[in-house]
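Input record, target 12 of the design panel.
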């Protein structure tokens, strides 16, 4: 066993046997070896102090002082060792006697035949520090607390572990004792009726509880409402005022005053506790509601920043440790059990998100739609660059290479979607939730139940390799699409790249070819094509299907008939439709789905009116651009830019869901273009 523990055991036995906290150091030095030998007869592993030198015993006493076990003080009779545990034992004994006999006063230093060393006492002011003690916010440095009171009330001794329960019980007993004294009940009742007019029955019931049902009175103190809180505050004030002006108080009057102060502090503590508990419950309700709100995925920092209706963040009420414990409990995944209501997911970038189970499928499908559009546009541009240099990459030819490339793009662009696209997660969520018909059908499309896997990523993203390749070809300048001209132009660009100012004056290799060929007609045809200036509007980044023979977007006067121009326009609009909804797709069907996403109104007429307002605004907007569209139909990028401009207008600022609204406007614009 530890030598220090064995030393404390010997001190405890000696002081309790002699009923004193002190022992002369010389007596301890002489007797410790003998005492340890007696104990070793029954406990062979007990420390043998007979072999300890005076220096070793002195070091042991220093350790005991550091552990609040014993101290050595110089007295007239010599050096004395005080066992501090004896003082704790004595105070605890005094409270046990008080529980057996309620007439006994609270213990104080004068109650004992010995004095308490400063090493054993920690002084606390009742009004300033007692509530902090109950909250656990007070640093306890000594084993016994000395509570001091104002207005000449005697101090009292207390062990820290008694403050929470035992002391309150004794204080309520003192209140009962006060009320049993003749005329005190009538005095208190009269004073309280003046403070609570019309509450005679409630006051009588409270006083009866104190007199006959201590447990009920205790529960009322611990769980106060507005009336009981005010009752205890006024009751304690009556008692304190009763004895405040007495210069010399009887022993029991000191006890009544001490108990009234302490009950007043308990009353404040439990009232504050209840208010804090209610505030935390409300804050957790804000957390619960916030997690289930858009965008349906939140980090821990996002959640701690949720704000209540008053605008205060929940972190003001909920500590981070409490929030972490709450989220741990709400996201706990039980073995072979259902998914928790809130699912915790770590994305491919290592960030942790909290997602409500009943919104997971909706979130996944929304992200699939968004990233599909972006990836398709990105890949088309990249492939166009390769084709413009007469190169092909493996993704254009092999599906396996394309799938690997698409997975990598999803992982880099949207790490959370990459984490959500898991077969088991989507299947379990589909079975455990009740999604809408559209969400159910679209989620089932992603799952290959026979193979226990997702369908290929290109099918998830509705990415048709051949269609995107055709779209990429439309982004190439016309002169590059003519084999002889294109290869010659690329060769000459490489030849003249880096040359001086003369080479810089050549804006288009097709012009150089025209000069070599001497054909004015061919040269003028080349110069009419869009030239790459690095600007988005010049490059022509929109997607549309490549016609059998690419003609200039703006036909020269007199070169084509009106019917031919109209046919060219319809082909361009059809290519736009294919780019958005695929071959055989239906614009109206997609528009109906998007309406449910951006139009939150429930009342049918109001919902229809909002749709018509948006449609009318789009028609008015397009009417101003109608002539230009007839000459040069817009590409997908132009449609996108125009739709964003309409969606962000002041007239539609009340519609918060801009992404589905923008997509709807794009489709409606294409529908209007197709009516020509």
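The sequence produced for target 12 reads:
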């Amino acid at each position: 066993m530890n030598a220090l523990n064995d030393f404390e055991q010997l001190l405890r036995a000696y002081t309790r046997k002699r009923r004193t906290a002190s022992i002369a150091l010389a007596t301890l030095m002489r007797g410790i070896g003998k005492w340890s030998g007696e104990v070793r007869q029954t406990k062979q592993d007990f420390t043998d102090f007979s072999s300890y030198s005076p220096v070793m015993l002195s070091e042991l006493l220093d350790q005991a002082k550091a552990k609040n076990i014993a101290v050595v003080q110089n007295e007239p009779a010599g050096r004395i060792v005080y066992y501090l545990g004896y003082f704790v034992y004595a105070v605890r004994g005094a409270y046990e006697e008080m529980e057996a006999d309620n007439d006994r006063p609270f213990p104080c230093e004068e109650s004992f035949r010995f004095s308490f060393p400063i090493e054993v006492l920690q002084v606390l002011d009742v009004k300033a520090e007692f509530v902090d003690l109950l909250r656990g916010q007070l640093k306890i440095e000594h084993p016994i607390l000395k509570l001091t009171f104002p207005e000449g009330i005697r101090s009292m001794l207390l062990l820290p572990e008694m403050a929470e329960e035992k002391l309150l019980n004794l204080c309520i007993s003192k209140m009962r004792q006060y009320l049993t004294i003749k005329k005190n009940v009538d005095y208190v009742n009269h004073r309280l009726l003046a403070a609570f007019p019309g509450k005679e029955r409630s006051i009588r019931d409270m006083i009866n509880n104190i007199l006959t049902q201590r447990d009920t009175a205790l529960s009322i103190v611990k769980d106060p409402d507005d009336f009981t809180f005010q009752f205890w505050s006024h009751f304690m004030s009556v008692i304190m005022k009763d004895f405040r002006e007495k210069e010399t108080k009887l022993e029991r009057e000191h006890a009544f005053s001490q108990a009234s102060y302490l009950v007043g502090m308990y009353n404040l503590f439990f009232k504050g506790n209840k208010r804090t508990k209610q505030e935390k419950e409300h804050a957790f309700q804000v957390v619960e509601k916030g997690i289930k709100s858009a965008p349906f995925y939140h980090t821990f920092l996002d959640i701690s920043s949720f704000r209540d209706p008053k605008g205060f963040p929940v972190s003001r009420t909920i500590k981070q440790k409490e929030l972490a414990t709450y989220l741990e409990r709400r996201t706990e995944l039980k073995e072979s059990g259902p998914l928790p209501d809130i699912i915790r997911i770590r994305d491919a970038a290592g960030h942790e998100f909290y997602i409500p189970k009943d919104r997971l499928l909706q979130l996944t499908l929304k992200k699939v739609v968004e990233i599909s559009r972006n990836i398709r546009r990105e890949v088309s541009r990249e492939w166009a660059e390769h084709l413009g240099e007469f190169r092909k990459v493996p993704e254009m030819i092999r599906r396996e290479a394309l799938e690997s490339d698409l997975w990598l793009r999803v992982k880099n662009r949207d790490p959370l979607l990459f984490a959500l696209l898991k077969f088991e997660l989507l299947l379990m969520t589909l079975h455990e939730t009740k999604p809408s018909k559209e969400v159910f059908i679209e989620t089932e499309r992603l799952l290959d139940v026979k193979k226990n896997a997702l369908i290929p990523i290109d099918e998830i993203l509705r990415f048709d390799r051949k269609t995107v390749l055709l779209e990429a070809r439309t982004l190439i300048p016309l002169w590059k699409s003519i084999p002889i001209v294109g290869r010659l132009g690329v060769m000459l660009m490489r030849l003249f790249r880096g040359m001086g100012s003369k080479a810089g004056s050549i804006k288009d290799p097709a012009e150089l070819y025209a000069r070599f060929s001497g054909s004015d007609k061919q040269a003028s045809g080349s110069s009419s094509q869009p030239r790459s200036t690095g600007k988005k509007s010049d490059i022509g980044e929109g997607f549309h299907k490549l016609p059998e023979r690419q003609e200039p977007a703006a036909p020269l006067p007199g070169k084509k008939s009106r019917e031919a121009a109209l046919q060219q326009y319809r082909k361009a609009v059809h290519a736009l439709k294919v780019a958005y909804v695929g071959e055989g797709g239906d614009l109206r069907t997609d528009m109906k789905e998007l309406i449910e996403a951006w139009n939150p109104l429930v009342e049918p007429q109001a919902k229809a009116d909002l749709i018509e307002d948006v449609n009318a605004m789009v028609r008015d907007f397009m009417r101003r651009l109608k002539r230009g569209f007839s000459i040069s139909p817009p590409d997908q990028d132009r449609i996108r830019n125009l739709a964003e401009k309409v969606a962000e207008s002041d007239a539609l600022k009340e519609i918060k869901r801009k992404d589905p609204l923008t997509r709807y406007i794009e489709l409606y614009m294409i529908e209007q273009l197709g009516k020509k």
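The radius of gyration is 43 Å.
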